[in-house]
Amino acid sequence: MTALTLDLPDEKLRRLEVVARARGTSVARLFEEMSSVMLAEADAETRFQLRAQRGAGKESRGLELLGKASRDHDADPRSAP
Q1: DSSP type of residue 58
Q2: Nearest CA to 20 among 29, 11, 12?
Q3: 25-73 pLDDT, tens per residue?
Q4: Long-range contacts of 27-35 (CB under 8 A, 24+ apart)
C-alpha cells in the first residue's frame, strides 16, 4: 500500500475526524472509501460514454423500438392492472 500526504485546512481535518469517529473508523479509511466511490463513478461515466457513442446516430431506431414495445405492452391483456 502507498502512503499519501495531503494538505488540508485544519478545520476540514477536524470535521473529517468527527465524521470518522462517528462512523467508528479512521480518516485514512474515509479517504479510501471516498476514493472507491469516486472510481466507481468514473467507471460508470466511462461505461455511459461508451454506450452513448455506440448509440450515436441510432436515436430514431431506438425511439421506434420503444414505441413498438409500448404498443405491444398496451395490447397485451396480461399487462392490465
Answers
A1: -
A2: 29
A3: 999 999 999 999 999 999 999 999 999 999 889 989 989 999 999 887 7
A4: 31/4, 31/6
